[in-house]
Amino acid sequence: MERNDVLTALNGIFSVVLNKENLQLSEQMSTDDIDNWDSLTNMTIISEIERLWQVHFKLRDIIRMRNIGDMVDTIISKSQN
To answer: What's this model's pTM, rounded to 2 decimal places?
Structure first.
C-alpha cells in the first residue's frame, strides 16, 4: 500500500465528513490546521477509515495519531496485519 494512495483516500473521507470540497491534506496537518475537525468529526473519520480499510483501531491507536502522517502510518500498519 502506497502512502500517496492512503493520503488520497483520506482526503476524500475528510472532504465528505467535513464538507470541504477543496481540501488538500498534507502529512503535517493536524486538528489545528483544519476547520471543523473536532472530536465528534474525528470519530466519524475514524469510523470511515475502519470501514474502508477493514481495520479496527484501539483507543491507544487513536490517541497516538497526532497528525495526518501518523494516521497514514497507522492505516498502513493495521492493513498489513
So the answer is: 0.93
